[in-house]
Design goal:
175 residues; 29% helix; alpha+beta; Aminopeptidase; single chain; globular
């Protein structure tokens, strides 16, 4: 069986105790651009989401996992499989590390590697995709490290910082 534990981090299911953490991430306007969020989320809505987090990926069509440093239970980020399509054996993948001090420390890379392995081995997916703003060089570098290839650019796709920005579609097909 595939493990979701790496050398420095592990991935776990969301817990009710993650309410404040998710609330802060979802309402952090500085990352709305990468998460395509447009409005704040209430604690009520996030609590409802957490109450339904027990649904498996086949029912919910998504899987959100907390990224935690080994030896702790406190989340430092989130990684998602979304738009899960079992018929066509594909899903989107997205990742966020909350604090800048934890970024560029290898935690995101390790989490993405674990999720790719889980998606291809456990879920038997054929491909993963990621939508990344063309100016988000850190995410582009992360995903291309694992062999994601840019297959197209959606021009003027997202409106952020009072201007339209392009978004690239990256794809990883299981060999």
């Amino acid at each position: 069986m595939v493990t979701l534990k790496g050398n420095t981090i592990y991935l776990r299911a969301l817990e009710p105790e993650d309410l404040e953490f998710i609330y802060h991430i979802e309402n952090d306007e500085s990352i709305w651009e990468v998460s395509n969020t447009q409005t704040p989320y209430s604690k009520f809505l996030i609590r409802q989401y957490l109450e339904n987090a027990h649904q498996d990926i086949y029912e919910a069509k998504q899987l959100r996992l907390a990224i935690c440093k080994n030896e702790t239970t406190e989340a430092i980020g989130l990684i998602d499989l979304f738009d899960f399509d079992p018929k066509n054996k594909r899903a989107g993948v997205g990742i966020i590390i909350q604090n800048e001090t934890d970024r560029k420390s290898g935690f995101g890379k390790e989490a993405l590697g674990l999720v790719i392995n889980y998606a291809f081995q456990q879920l038997q997916l054929h491909q993963l995709f990621a939508n990344i703003g063309t100016e988000n060089t850190a995410s582009i570098a992360l995903f291309t490290t694992f062999g994601f290839e840019k297959i197209g650019v959606k021009k003027d796709w997202n409106f952020a910082n009072n201007r339209f920005q392009d978004e690239a579609l990256f794809q990883l097909i299981k060999k």
